[in-house]
Each structure stands twice: as structure tokens, then as C-alpha cells.
């Protein structure tokens, strides 16, 4: 067996990392790291996205991918046939635990490894603990998706300022600007995605969403969904979730999925109202600070 190698891919290698992640998506697993996660990170550009990735390979074969979502959280996906591999789990766990390996710094940190049970066992044995629960939700796409009353269109360049404004209002964050969205839309992952803008009866932009495909027969992902605070309570979030499911169905996806903190009860209720079924909770794993 070829030795395990840890690296950070170059921007030119993003396409091959995305291809691996697409091939690993399955309805049998609770929303692992998805091509759409890399696609949304591409707001920061190809260089920053590549720098945030950690790739474990055996020979030419990728076997695990991690994405740093901030300096203290790594989000992971493993090749499906290796999620129970104790040897791989031990090696990846050692790389995560050792700050010299360049995955996570010393002290407080978190790992999202929802579809990697052997790695979770390895980290728990190393003293990590379960953190706050997250709720995976999934809607199968075998049947047609109902229509919505909200006016929803695909985002064009002329809509980017409105998408950014709604996102900033929905999340209370200034990090998403028009130029960043333009960078994301030009990224390789968004070729298999759609960004949507919802308007109410007065033509006011009230909600945004991006839906990411992993290819025909594989689960798609919603990331993000946001509704302006002053326009909540009117079913706009539900309408956007239905529109995402309809687009993913046309793209050939097997399901539409999302994962949200259990503490965000209103978000969970919105997805469930749109036919997304809640799966068993999955916690992140946390290492306390020293």
C-alpha cells in the first residue's frame, strides 16, 4: 500500500479536489464536506481556497479532504470505502492533533467529520469531546417539487448587489460583498450550482440561496439560505428551499440537503416545512483550549 501523504493543493488542482468530493457524495452519509462548501469558500478566491485545503493521498488517489473554515475548525470528507479504516483514521487523527503538521493550531479546535466514524472514534480516544449538535436535513427528489408563489430568479451580474445586501442583513455580517460574489460565481464549483434571489410582490429582494450539485445521482447542498430579518415569517425561506430542490432535481441530483445547528430551531422548522426530513443529530468534535 502506498504511504499516506498530506499536502495543500495548488489552485490549479482545485478541479481534481472537487472531482474527488463529488464522487464521495452519497445519500448513505449525513452531509460530509461537499463541493458546495468549497464553492462558497471561493468567495475569497482560488488562492485562498486552495490554501484552506488539506489533502491526504495514497499514491495518486485522494483518500481524505479537509477544509479550514477559520483557523480553529477543519471540515472533512473521506473516501466512502475508507470511512471505517482504522489505520487511515489513526494517521489523519495524528495529523489533526499535531500542530506541526499544519492542519490545526495548538489549543482550542474543532473537527467536523460527520461521515467518518473511525476518525471520530480516534479523536474521542485522544480526549476530544462532542460539541453542540447539528441537524442534517434531506429531501429526496424522486417526485416533482411543488410550485411556490415567491418570484425567484437566477442571479445575474446585475443582481449581485442585492444578493450581497440580503445576505449581509440575514447573517449580520459584512463579509459578502458584490465583488466577492462575482469571484464565487466565476469559480469552478459554481459551474454546477445556481444562486437564487427571491422577491416579494413589491419586487423587493427578500431572500437568497445557493444550491450546489455534486452531479447526477448524488446529493446536492444548500449553502447558504438567508432571509432579510424584516421579511421573515412569510414563508420566503420555505419557497427558496423548494426552488433549490426543484433546480437540483432538474440537474439530476438524488436529494437536496443541508446541515444546520440544532439551536437554530426556526431554520430547522423552515427546512422541514419544505419537505426536508431531519436525520439524527451529528455533533462536531471539540478539543478544549489549554
Structure description:
- With 290 residues, the protein is of the alpha+beta class.
- The protein is built from 9 helices and 13 strands.
- Strands 1, 2, 3, 4, 5, 6, 7, 8, 9, 10, 11, 12 and 13 form a 13-stranded mixed sheet that branches.
- Strand 8 and strand 9 form a beta hairpin.
- Helix 4 crosses helix 5 (117-125).
- The longest helix has 15 residues, at 236-250.
- The model has no long low-confidence stretch (mean pLDDT 96).
Major beta sheet summary: 13 strands, mixed
The number of E-state strands comes to 13
Q: What's the CATH class of the largest domain, please?
A: Alpha Beta
Approximate shape: globular
Separation of termini?
A: 37 Å
Structural class, by secondary structure, is alpha+beta
How is the secondary structure organized here?
Layout: E1 4-7, H1 14-24, H2 35-41, H3 46-51, E2 53-58, E3 61-68, E4 73-78, H4 86-97, E5 109-112, H5 117-125, E6 129-140, E7 151-154, H6 160-171, H7 178-185, E8 193-199, E9 205-212, E10 219-227, H8 236-250, E11 255-261, H9 265-273, E12 277-278, E13 282-287
Parallel strand pairs: 4-5, 10-11
Antiparallel strand pairs: 1-2, 2-3, 3-4, 5-13, 6-11, 6-12, 6-13, 7-8, 8-9, 9-10
Helix pairs in contact: 4-5, 6-7
Give a quick rundown of the structure:
The protein is α+β, with helices and mostly antiparallel strands. Helix content is 31%, strand content 29%.
Amino acid at each position: 500500500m502506498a504511504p499516506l501523504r498530506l499536502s495543500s493543493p495548488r489552485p490549479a488542482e482545485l478541479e481534481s479536489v472537487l472531482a474527488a468530493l463529488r464522487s464521495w457524495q452519497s445519500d448513505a452519509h449525513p452531509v460530509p464536506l461537499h463541493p458546495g462548501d468549497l464553492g462558497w469558500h471561493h468567495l475569497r478566491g482560488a488562492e485562498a481556497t486552495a490554501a484552506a485545503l488539506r489533502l491526504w493521498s495514497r499514491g495518486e488517489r485522494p483518500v481524505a479532504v479537509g477544509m479550514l473554515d477559520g483557523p480553529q475548525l477543519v471540515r472533512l470528507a473521506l473516501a466512502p470505502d475508507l470511512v471505517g479504516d482504522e489505520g487511515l483514521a489513526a494517521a489523519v487523527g495524528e495529523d489533526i492533533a499535531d500542530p506541526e503538521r499544519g492542519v490545526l493550531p495548538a489549543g482550542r479546535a474543532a473537527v467536523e467529520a460527520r461521515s467518518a466514524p473511525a476518525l471520530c472514534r480516534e479523536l474521542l480516544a485522544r480526549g476530544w469531546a462532542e460539541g453542540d449538535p447539528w441537524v442534517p436535513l434531506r429531501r429526496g427528489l424522486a417526485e416533482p417539487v411543488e410550485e411556490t408563489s415567491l418570484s425567484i430568479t437566477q442571479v445575474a451580474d446585475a443582481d449581485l448587489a442585492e444578493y450581497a445586501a440580503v445576505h449581509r442583513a440575514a447573517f449580520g455580517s459584512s463579509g459578502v460583498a458584490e465583488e466577492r460574489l462575482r469571484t464565487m460565481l466565476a469559480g469552478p464549483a459554481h459551474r454546477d450550482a445556481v444562486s437564487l434571489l427571491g422577491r416579494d410582490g413589491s419586487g423587493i429582494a427578500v431572500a437568497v440561496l445557493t444550491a450546489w450539485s455534486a452531479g447526477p445521482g448524488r446529493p446536492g447542498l444548500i449553502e447558504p439560505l438567508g432571509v432579510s430579518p424584516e421579511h421573515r415569517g412569510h414563508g420566503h425561506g420555505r419557497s427558496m428551499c423548494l426552488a433549490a430542490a426543484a433546480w437540483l432535481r432538474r440537474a439530476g441530483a438524488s436529494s437536496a440537503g443541508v446541515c444546520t445547528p440544532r439551536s437554530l430551531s426556526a431554520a430547522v422548522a423552515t427546512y422541514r416545512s419544505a419537505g426536508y426530513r431531519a436525520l439524527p443529530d451529528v455533533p462536531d468534535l471539540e478539543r478544549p483550549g489549554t
